[in-house]
Amino acid sequence: MTTALANLTAFILLLTITAYSVAGGVDYGAGIWDLLAGRGPRAERARQLIDHAMAPVWEANNVWLVLAIVVCWTGFPLLFQSVFASLYPLFALALLALILRGAFFAFRHLQSGPQAQRRTGVVFGISSLLAPFFFAAALGAIASGRVALGEPNIPVWQACFNPTSISFGLVSLAATAFIGASFLVGDARRFGQPDMVDYFRRRAVIATAVLIVIGTIALAVTGLENPHLLNAMLTGLGTPFAAAAVIVTPLVGFLVWRRFFRWYRLLSVVVVGSLVFAWGFAQSPYLLPGQVTIAQSAAPLGSEVLLSIVTLAVVVLILPSLALLVYLDQRGELEAPQA
Amino acid sequence: MAFTLAYHVILVPLGVAFPAYTLLMEGIGIFKKDAAAIRIARRWSVVMAVQFAVGAVTGTILSFEFGILWPKLMGRFGAALGMGFAIEGLAFFLEAIFIGIYLYGWTRLRPRTHFLLGLALPPAGVLGTVSVLAANAFMNTPGGVTLGSSGKVVSVDLLGALFTRALAYEFWHFLIATYITAGFIVASIYAVAWLRGRRDHYQGLAFAIPFTVAALLTPVELAVGDLSARALVADQPAKFAAMEVTWKTRSHNPEVVGGLLTDSGQVNFGLSIPSFDSILIGLSPDTVAPGLTSVPATARPTIAEANITHLAFDVMVGLGSAGAALTVWYFAVLLYRRRLPQSRWFYRAASLAGVGSYVAVEAGWVTTEVGRQPWIVYNLMRVSDAVTNAPGTFVWSMLSVLVVVYAVIAVIAIALLRKLGARWHQEDATQGPSAPEEGVPYGPPSVRGVTRGSSR
After folding, report:
1. CA dist A39 → A42, A46, A55 (Å)
2. Contact check, Cβ <8 Å, B96/A60
């Protein structure tokens, strides 16, 4: 019973991380394309579209991050302690990027004049780049087995920055740009701007190629450093997800390239989701590879039960209301606006 | 951590209670068919969106800080302490979605449906409050956990760890404080508008509704606060002794207002009311009040900490009493003259009530946190055992960066709200029609940005 609950909790943790990767990825990805847009009237149009597409989000993606954190410290207190004791620099940097990003997104709206807007936009763009990198690097650092149980047993900077963690960071950058471009294609279509559809379509194809190249290199680097992890990805629990990522990524690029505008957004979600799942399942049953398993570090029964109740509440309460919000977003305004 | 918490605490009253005022205003608008009330509610909802964005960012920072600064606290007590936060995560999620629905719904739902859906917001705020306070109450009066021989938590009683003794009084005390603070802060903005010469129906409504609710709650808060303080005598005697700067346990204990405790246990300066503390605790001068020396020196606040606790407590009680005085003034005019006050001095005082209640909330928070020193989890874990092993330079540089960043966020948020306020004011002057959301970086897209004009 306890083990089953602990496994369930670990799965919930993985799901929240995935949800943040997807929802945050779309958001950060838009920021990355804002940074890379360059200058000129077309770039300005692209920026306007990005801004417009991001407006309804208003930092709400952070709920996934906060959920992941609370599930981690309630469900696996020891994991939480160990990860933060070893990787606090990565989290501090990610956090800083996250704040700057939010602040400068709002700040840009206060600026008048394109010059000033561009300057604030650069900070916004760079922090959109750094936040996903550092968050994913933390996952890579865990995967590399360098996070010790309790207090760190190697210098903290080595735990934070190593080939595996940097590979994870780079893959997340490519994946973020990829899913961001894919959703921006959708937004451009929704807003009826054919030139912007083409603009982001090209970028989505380029991002697909970059993701494939970086993903391959990262897989090789990770494999050289941690043969166990690679094994589990190729011939273990992680295999179906790794395979899904390998197959679906080029498919998305192909669909968008051929202007076959169906399924491409859902499939890019599948890509990002399978990347996270491939890591999570390849690592199971270990939370910290080679050191502590899910069952070993699980919190006492009471806490696990509470987390299951909270999860159930999320499913029962949140999903319907989220559906309502999406419905309202898609639905036009009523005829007679009040007030 | 203290700093960021203090900052986040500023946002909490607005986050928890502001939606309730907005809904109240909308309800008045719908049922009395008052267009001004609807306009106020809709503008307030935009402020809600901005404050939610700031709150989401600072709340995320907070949750990370638990890991960055207090990894050992969470490692040992996360299973119990974290439960409250897990529920708060759920509440936060609900708020995020329903604020979205509320903002979108202005133009996309029928008024009644919109209002009814908005009613989900106040309970979500209350749920968040109760769960975060459950975590704080656990730190004050831990319970529901069984510790192994090594001090490790071996079992958690779900309900016992969530509903510890302090929760009952902390919850009511804080929840009412959020409603008072939000009410006064909103009213104070319109009090300033009154002082600047705006005296129309819009201003009167936007001032009177939040002010009346906050004023009604102020005496209730004093009573609840009194109950909380008395509960501390049994639950956390050292904190209570620090609040009252009582050195030795004694009967006929005086109530000291102001004043500083010295190393030798003397209280200098300060106004002393003989036996009043004992009377407050047990309604009799013979009641024994706990002293700091009843607790070993290593397990109680230091002299400096006791003084901070005491002064913060006095500030909170003083401001609470000032609020009560203002309440009496308000209702006296309301009942005898049957109209809102017309005195400039009243509105000057009212315009300070918002800031005053913020200071009171901060002071209350300082009282409970500093008064618990040296413990992070009362009698179970010391602050020094919970803090990170990361080098001091890291912690301090992180802190200084955060101070700067928070200042930037504050400036941006205030500038954004001022810009909105100026535009709304102008629109009222020119009677121009408007969608108040325009120009806000958060909100439904169709009323702003690219498709502006085409959709309306």
Report:
1. 8, 10, 22
2. yes
